[in-house]
Inverse folding.
């Protein structure tokens, strides 16, 4: 890239960020979550059509990425460099990112099915723990492989990972969680993990919704095998230990 092209690129990106509505959109995505154009329109205080135009421009300049999840379309920052640039600008401008909190029913937000695998707070915690422990390794943006220790961990759960890898579907991949707006584990490995949790009665499935109910056994086993803090039963209520998703109260535990 020539110096002139570099200058033009900088000015285009600077102009895109400088527009107030786009600044609000970008700043609202700095928490690492993905959001719909409707949500971002509300954040930016513009119409849906105007937000779509802004998002198209930001996508064109590689400042945001589009994630298509079935019928849903979400936007997130393109990568951590965009967040770093915004943080630097906020330091200079002595500004702060606007706050945003999505509203999702507690029962569904904590644990639910996503097609044939697990979603919600519980699933995101498991996903993050698998990466942190080195059981899952990223091969690219949309795929994982198991490390030797990860293979041993899943085999300890009775999951034959070699058989899963021969299926005509993706083995393990990140699936964007619509309530947490962060990935949980999808693919045949995610489906096998859900079936194991159901079979072992770690979670039970509602008959009339996609909600999953964490059992007392499940809380114990997820904590023992994965090392994550989960809700505790106290006189019929639910108390939540300090976990990656923060402290909260949930009502779906038996």
């Amino acid at each position: 890239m020539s110096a002139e092209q570099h200058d033009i690129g900088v000015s285009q990106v600077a102009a895109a960020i400088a527009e107030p509505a786009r600044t609000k959109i970008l700043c609202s995505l700095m928490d690492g979550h993905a959001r719909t154009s409707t949500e971002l329109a509300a954040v930016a205080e513009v119409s849906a059509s105007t937000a779509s135009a802004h998002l198209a421009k930001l996508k064109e300049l590689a400042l945001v990425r589009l994630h298509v999840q079935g019928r849903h379309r979400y936007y997130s920052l393109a990568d951590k460099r965009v967040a770093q640039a915004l943080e630097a600008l906020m330091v200079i401008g002595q500004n702060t990112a606007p706050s945003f909190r999505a509203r999702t029913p507690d029962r569904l937000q904590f644990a639910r099915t996503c097609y044939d695998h697990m979603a919600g707070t519980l699933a995101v915690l498991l996903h993050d723990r698998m990466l942190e422990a080195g059981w899952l390794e990223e091969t690219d943006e949309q795929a994982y492989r198991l490390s030797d220790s990860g293979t041993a961990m899943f085999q300890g759960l009775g999951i034959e990972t070699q058989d899963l890898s021969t299926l005509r579907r993706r083995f393990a991949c990140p699936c964007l969680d619509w309530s947490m707006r962060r990935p949980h584990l999808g693919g045949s490995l995610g489906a096998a993990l859900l079936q194991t949790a159901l079979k072992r009665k770690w979670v039970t499935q509602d008959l009339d919704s996609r909600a999953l109910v964490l059992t007392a056994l499940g809380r114990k086993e997820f904590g023992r095998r994965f090392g994550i803090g989960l809700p505790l039963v106290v006189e019929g209520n639910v108390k939540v230990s300090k976990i990656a998703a923060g402290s909260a109260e949930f009502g779906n535990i038996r």
